[in-house]
Design goal:
Order of helices and strands: HEHHEHEHEHEEEEEEEHEHEHEHH
Strand content: 15-25%
Shape: globular
Helix content: 25-40%
Strand order of the largest sheet: 2-1-3-4-5-6-9-10
Number of strands: 14
CATH class of the largest domain: Alpha Beta
CATH superfamily of the largest domain: L-asparaginase, N-terminal domain
Structural class: alpha/beta
Number of helices: 11
Number of domains: 2
Distance between the termini: 73 Å
Largest sheet: 8 strands, mixed
Bound molecules: succinic acid
Length: 354
């Protein structure tokens, strides 16, 4: 009787364990690619404001949020471990190639990229244009290091995995998930040096809300991205040099001249107001445009559009305008466009489409 009872318990335990494994195997397969940043950052002393970004590994990040396993089959890869001010074209190319390779297999249903917040908006827009898949890609970070008194990284990571695992996220491009909000990679920008709610949309609003693993979705973005994008970098070894010139009262032309001399193929003006600058800077940019440099007028203001021929005669000077994109995103679209064309009229068209 006793033996029969223990046998029954064993069989029941095996059935339950089998069911649990089966349920886990049915969950979406999400790969976390870790690149560093504050989300992997550690303070030297608890309670200190200063810290070193990119200290913890992807395994540490996953282990810190055991609830991730309730959402998905989560695995991780340590892609890089840098602070995002050191993000560069070479890492972007490698990251895009790796993401496209992973998403092409049935082994991965979605990707989460952990990333520093400083250049997150640029990486997210770059990936939004070059990822060739409908599967969700989510870029996530944190404003407080992992060892802080109240770190924001664990919940951000949980929400990011929930978005990557959500079938409704498919076909909407690349996201940034921060502070319970789902942003389009094209639209999101960092607006505060240190606040947890630093990320905001530039012009069009958020893509959705992330409520502890439950998502609410709003209108999808209109512009072309991912599978509809013409920008492919899987065979690319390098990208053209594109720089940003910041406008301010009394700005001289020297920086524009120096960039042209250094071989810039594109220059984005982070202009005052509606994308303007001093007479000497505009003159230098116009000369650069005549030499074949793609000159894009954007604004340092942070919100609003820069349209053609309002304060500046773009037709006459040969300039492109950034429309809705801020300078750092305009730089991304300019460098990808330059891989296809050197014609400012064609580049302008890309700013309407993407
Ligand atoms: C970084 O961008 O790597 C540092 C800042 C941050 O992640 O918030």
């Amino acid at each position: 009787m006793k033996r029969f009872f223990s046998l029954t318990v064993l069989v029941m335990a095996a059935v339950i364990a089998g069911g649990v494994l089966e349920a886990q195997a049915r969950k979406p397969k999400i790969m976390i690619l870790a690149t560093g940043g504050t989300i992997a950052g550690a303070q030297t002393k608890p309670g200190e404001a200063s810290y070193t970004a990119g200290t913890f590994s992807v395994a540490n990040l996953i282990a810190a949020v055991p609830q991730l396993q309730d959402l998905a089959q989560v695995s991780g890869e340590q892609f890089a471990n840098i602070a995002s001010q050191d993000m560069n074209n070479a890492v972007w190319l490698k990251l895009a190639k790796r993401i496209n390779q992973l998403l092409a297999t049935p082994e991965v249903d979605g990707i989460v990229v952990t990333h520093g917040t400083d250049t997150m908006e640029e990486t997210a827009y770059f990936l939004h244009l070059v990822v060739n898949s409908n599967k969700p890609v989510v870029v996530v970070g944190s404003m407080r290091p992992a060892t802080a008194i109240s770190p924001d990284g664990p919940l951000n990571l949980y929400n990011a995995v929930a978005v990557a695992a959500d079938p409704q996220a498919r076909g909407r491009g690349v996201f940034v998930v921060m502070d319970d909000k789902i942003f389009c990679g094209r639209e999101v920008t960092k607006t505060n040096t240190t606040a947890v709610e630093t990320f905001q949309p530039m012009n069009r609003g958020v893509q959705g809300a992330a409520y502890f693993g439950q998502n609410r979705w709003f209108e999808p973005p209109g512009q072309k991205h991912t599978t509809k994008s013409e920008f492919r970098v899987d065979q690319a070894e390098a990208m053209p040099r594109v720089d940003i010139v910041y406008a301010y009262a009394n700005a001289p032309r020297d920086m524009v001249d120096a960039l042209v001399a250094a071989g810039a193929k594109g220059i984005v003006l982070a202009g005052v107001g509606d994308g303007n600058s001093t007479e000497p800077v505009i003159a230098a940019l116009s000369e650069a445009a005549k030499k074949g440099v793609i000159v894009v007028r954007a604004s340092r203001v942070g919100h609003g559009l820069v349209r053609r021929n309002i304060e500046v005669n773009d037709d006459k000077l040969g300039f492109v305008t950034a429309e809705e994109l801020n300078p750092s995103k305009a730089r991304v679209l300019t460098l990808l466009s330059l891989m296809h064309t050197q014609d400012p009229k064609v580049v302008q068209q890309k700013f309407y489409e993407y």
